[in-house]
């Protein structure tokens, strides 16, 4: 893959836009499409070729990166199940960087290979800030030669890339990472709620956490947002709820018990029901606060 070959990029959301911008900054020529066209403006200003339809991306590019929200969006862009599917993916390398069901990804891989295409899983760990900084962590799965071909393309977006084996191993690994991330952030929100309920100094609480053995990039960012009451989206409640459901579906398939994730899933569903789906995942504290208020109401 040389800098003179145009790469397709479809899906310019919270993560996709900074990822695509980092590719452009590294000199990768991009052809981009997004359902909401105004989201392409920043990419156009940075030198990307913006097209009017997904089919135009596939027509111009042998490698197409998809950073899409869900399986329905994937199927729509690929025209999967329709007459245009083979024409879009035959002879193409499809690189899926979103988080999907492992079972869905396995079936999609079979369908793409059946019509002469290449499919590589490349889900990433990280939110908007790491995406902007090119500091995501990618997990790759697919045929060995395909993974080797795709890996250099990810360098401008990722600080580290791990090869996980055959599809859907990368997505399973991503879901395992999400179990840690989601329960960590939920626990941080609960700890902050506990501190607030005892009228502790939250700035001091944050400083102690930041200097302690449990501190991480994630905990430092999220505790700062909690102290400031800043719920600006980095990883949205709705997206985390989707990922939580994917984790629990995969756990059921493996007959695995995940009690902390089960509790987290309920809390993120309650947070979304409060109308906070577009807020950052740390807004899960609102559901915890609602439970506290509800328990006080019952006791009175």
UniProtKB/TrEMBL annotation:
PROSITE patterns: 3_HYDROXYISOBUT_DH. Its EC number is 1.1.-.-. Pfam families: NAD_binding_11, NAD_binding_2. Transmembrane segments: none annotated. Residues 172-287 form the 3-hydroxyisobutyrate dehydrogenase-like NAD-binding domain. Keywords: NAD, Oxidoreductase. It comes from the Bacteria. Residues 6-165 form the 6-phosphogluconate dehydrogenase NADP-binding domain. One of its GO terms (molecular function) is oxidoreductase activity. It is an enzyme of class 1 (oxidoreductase). This is NAD(P)-dependent oxidoreductase.
């Amino acid at each position: 893959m040389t800098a003179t070959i145009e790469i397709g990029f479809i899906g310019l959301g919270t993560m996709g836009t900074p990822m695509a911008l980092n590719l452009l900054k590294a000199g990768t020529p991009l052809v981009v499409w997004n359902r909401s066209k105004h989201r392409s403006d920043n990419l156009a200003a940075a030198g990307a070729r913006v097209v009017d339809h997904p089919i135009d991306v596939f027509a111009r590019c042998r490698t197409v990166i998809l950073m899409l929200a869900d399986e329905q969006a994937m199927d729509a862009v690929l025209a999967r199940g329709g007459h245009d599917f083979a024409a879009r993916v035959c002879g193409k390398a499809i690189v899926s960087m979103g988080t999907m069901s492992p079972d869905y990804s396995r079936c999609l891989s079979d369908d793409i290979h059946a019509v002469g295409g290449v499919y590589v899983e490349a889900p990433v760990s990280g939110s908007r800030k790491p995406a902007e900084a090119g500091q995501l962590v990618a997990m790759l799965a697919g045929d060995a030669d395909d993974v080797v071909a795709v890996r250099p393309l990810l360098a401008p977006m990722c600080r580290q890339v791990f090869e996980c084996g055959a599809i859907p191993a990368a997505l399973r690994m991503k879901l395992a990472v999400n179990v840690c991330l989601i329960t960590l952030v939920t626990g941080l929100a609960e700890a902050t709620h506990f501190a607030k309920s005892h009228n502790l100094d939250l700035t001091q609480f944050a400083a102690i956490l930041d200097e302690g053995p449990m501190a991480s990039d994630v905990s430092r960012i999220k505790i700062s947002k909690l102290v400031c009451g800043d719920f600006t989206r980095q990883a949205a409640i709705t997206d985390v709820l989707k990922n939580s459901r994917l984790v629990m579906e995969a756990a059921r398939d493996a007959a695995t018990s995940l009690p902390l994730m089960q509790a987290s899933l309920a809390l993120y569903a309650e947070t979304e029901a409060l109308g906070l789906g577009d807020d950052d995942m740390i807004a899960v504290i609102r559901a915890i606060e609602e439970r506290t208020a509800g328990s006080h109401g019952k006791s009175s």
